[in-house]
Amino acid sequence: MKIVRSYAQPEQALLVGVEFARAPRLEIEDSLDELAELARTAGASVLARLTQTRARPDPACFIGRGKLEEIRAEVAAAGAELLIFNHDLTPSQLRNIEDATQCRTIDRTQLILDIFARHARSHEGQLQVELAQLNYLLPRLTDRGRELSRLGGGIGTRGPGETQLETDRRRIRRRLRKIRQELEAVRQRRAQQRAARQAAALATIALVGYTNAGKSTLFNVLTQAEVHVSEQMFATLDPTIRALTLPSGRRVLLADTVGFLRHLPPGLVAAFRATLEEVQEATMLLQVSDIANPHHQEQDAEVEKILADIGVADKPRLHVFNKLDLLPEAERLRLRNHNRTAFTSALKGIGLAELRSQLEQFLPGDRRVRLRLKLSPAHGRALAQLHAQGVIISQEYRDGCLILEAEIPETIATQFAAYKI
């Protein structure tokens, strides 16, 4: 079920935010700045912002009736085509707002889902976005069905309208089952790929951080890859894995992953389970922050919440403060790499050598063990693996077999148990 939309002309949008008494003012302003950036990423042109202070949301319209009338007048005066609320709205709240303002209305989750739909390039990414979209849509169809059922209960209330809703619900549930099956197959393929990487004794470092912190740019300069880079939010949805050689010659894998965001819809996090498993299975995290963003501490706090939610808050981590070139020179000179913290500009190539050295220092080591082995001529693949991943200390031929002593990573030692002397 896909909606075809033209992006030729930007939609004229008004942003609406509610400041609750318990929330700090700075957070409200920062959140609306972020909503404006999300709206622009989705292809909208932001005309204005409207805010209201309330103790709690209004059950019917989220905002008060007076503010709703003010928004209606602003929509008419500005010629707005779209209202974007910086909050999640219930189906009845969306309907009441649209009825009162005569303007199409979406909430924050719908906006984020739209951006993900625009940026999903791989089949896997598209499946994950569609899963989140359908999970968002299904209860709203259900709500519409309840509304129709309240029209009566007898003659005049049964007909094609309700039948169509039931048909839509069945179609969505069938599609959800199919998507989940396909994503389960994706998870199994990823698990097999991870098992192959683990068998090769290659550690994985996962890039994590707030959206638009510069993760993909850093990924490209470290691995000489060509991952798509954009100043738009959520430019990266599909994980990419490339080899990285550290100063000692040790080869590891670096994984670029989807960026995080405050109030990221739980359904979206669940839909991207297959992608987030790359983070969960990584040996180490490389957390990237935009140090030039005045609110990077608040962004880091949101990243911490999501890492805790997916169970990786205690994983070994190196924190990289990126976009150093955007800071004033005097402030830059005061910054020095220290324990588990690095400062870089991926765009300008600043601090990358120091970052590689720190990765070498903090990446959990793969202890080497010494084995004495006996290999026949038929064991050529095992011998090739020893040369590729271990160090041959001594070797001699005896009775048509190769007797050797080698040091190999402990993670692959069990693979050579059958050859041990």
Report on the structure:
The protein has 13 helices and 13 strands. The protein is α/β, with parallel strands linked by helices and 421 residues long. It folds into four domains: 12-106, GTPase HflX, N-terminal domain (Rossmann fold), CATH 3.40.50; 121-149 and 163-187; 191-362, Rossmann fold (3-Layer(aba) Sandwich), CATH 3.40.50; 368-419, Alpha-Beta Plaits. Strand 12 (391-398) and strand 13 form a beta hairpin. The radius of gyration is 27 Å and the shape is elongated. Residues 1-7 and 145-161 have low confidence and may be disordered.
CATH superfamily of the largest domain: P-loop containing nucleotide triphosphate hydrolases
Secondary-structure element string: EHEHEHEHHHEHEEHHEHEHEHEHEE
The CATH architecture designation of the largest domain is 3-Layer(aba) Sandwich
What is the count of β-strands?
Answer: 13
* CATH class value of the largest domain: Alpha Beta
What is the averaged pLDDT score?
Answer: 82
| Strand percent estimate | 15-25%
Structural class: alpha/beta
Number of domains: 4
CATH topology of the largest domain: Rossmann fold
End-to-end Cα distance, whole Å, is 61 Å
Please, how many helices?
13
Strand order of the main beta sheet, please?
A: 6-7-5-8-9-10
Largest sheet: 6 strands, mixed
What is the helix content? 40-55%
Shape, per Cα inertia axes: elongated
